[in-house]
Design goal:
Layout: H1 2-36, E1 43-49, E2 64-70, H2 82-85, E3 89-90, E4 105-106, H3 115-118, E5 124-129, H4 133-136, E6 145-154, E7 164-180, H5 182-189, E8 209-214, H6 216-227, E9 231-236, H7 252-259
Antiparallel strand pairs: 1-2, 3-4, 5-8, 6-7, 6-9, 7-8
Amino acid sequence: MKRKGAIWLAVGLVLAVMAGLATFRILTQVTAERETGAVETTTSSVVVALVDMEPRTILTDTTLALRQVPIEMVPVGAVTNLDEARGKLTLDEVSAGEIILSRRLADPSNTSANIAFTMPEDKVAIALPGGDRLTRSGVLKEGDRVDLLFSLSASSSSGGKADTLVTLSAIQNLTITAIVLPNVLAEASGSTLGKVPGSSGATGDIDPILLVAVDPQDALVLKYLVDAGAVLDVALRANTNEQIRAVESVTIEYMADRYQFVIPKENTQPLKPSGKE
């Protein structure tokens, strides 16, 4: 019995030594892998800023780089491809080393989004009623080049003449920044049957709104014409036509001279633009 007990004791000691050696070998291997960086960590590519940038900075290859970061450190909306950031505009300040987020970028070519950032700094945005036939037809789109034509009643300062209709080309070669469609305006008014203030249509007939970026002085001219009740028509240009032409404002006298007719003297009633009550 004593001999059997000694044998079992010896076997137990051998197994204990083997288990210890196995544990030591595993711990040694893990420690070595940690020291050499062999333990794999899941990472993701992100775009980071190489320099500090102010708002409205155009991102280029010299200001951006790809970096690998642990996937758990990648924020929502992080830009993961240089092509997604290249040529975009920063909406606010960006610090060197910061991960670029898509929500903090604007596309300069998309003038209808982030208008305050994408339009030139020397311009102001103004909204115009889009009740003219061309705009309501749906032909116009953002980025089209147009001329703005207005007709309004004008009277002599001396009071010697009755009101007469004057048609003029207020601004030429203007780019449409954005078009706010009737369904968007109706939703903003809280009801599809409501009438948005400034709409020339009847209840439920909401006109589009044209957004344009113009010089501050031209903005005042456009506001004056709208406030004076002038009727706006939009003339569409070829997309490559940037020429500014010298045109003459049209009155009844101009029409009589061009088409060789006599203005009746008894015609003393004020002339009103077509479609204007």
